[in-house]
């Protein structure tokens, strides 16, 4: 299949997705999943403690919040890097921009939710 100078194949379809776009989507999904996983693990660890919950210890619901906050702190650099990778992928010519746009949206939604919850608290 021959390619035109614009980057389209002869049939008129755009070429494959950029690696930056795929990285943007993967980092966005990781940024969303890491707080959920760490929250669930912390909740399970807090619920597995034997005996009643004493004053000053972390219960299951607070354990989820502690794990989720740790996950958000770890995911913030991933979301920022994923958003930048999506911008780079969007600026590259002759590539399909679907994954770039999806990755930017996922990362931007994570960052917007982080700002909303930070300022609401």
3D architecture notes:
By secondary structure, the chain is mostly helical. It is built from 3 helices and no strands. α1 (19-47) packs parallel to α3 and α2 (60-91) crosses α3 (98-120). The longest helix is centred in the middle third of the chain and has 32 residues, at 60-91. The protein is elongated and about 65 Å long.
Which structural traits does this protein have?
121 residues, mainly alpha, 69% helix, elongated
Order of helices and strands: HHH
Given the helix and strand composition, which structural class is it? Answer: mainly alpha
pLDDT below 50 for ≥5 consecutive residues: which ranges?
A: none
Number of helices: 3
Give a short account of the largest sheet: none
Helical content band: 55-70%
Average pLDDT, to the nearest integer? 83
Rg, nearest Å: 20 Å
SSE arrangement:
Layout: H1 19-47, H2 60-91, H3 98-120
């Amino acid at each position: 299949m021959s390619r035109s100078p614009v980057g389209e194949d002869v049939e008129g379809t755009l070429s494959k997705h950029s690696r930056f776009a795929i990285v943007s989507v993967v980092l966005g999904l990781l940024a969303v999943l890491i707080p959920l996983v760490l929250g669930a693990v912390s909740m399970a660890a807090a619920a597995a403690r034997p005996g009643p919950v004493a004053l000053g210890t972390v219960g299951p619901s607070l354990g989820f919040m502690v794990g989720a906050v740790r996950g958000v702190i770890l995911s913030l650099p991933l979301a920022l890097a994923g958003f930048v990778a999506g911008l780079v992928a969007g600026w590259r010519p002759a590539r399909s921009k679907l994954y770039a746009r999806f990755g930017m949206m996922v990362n931007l939604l994570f960052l917007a939710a982080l700002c909303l919850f930070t300022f609401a608290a």
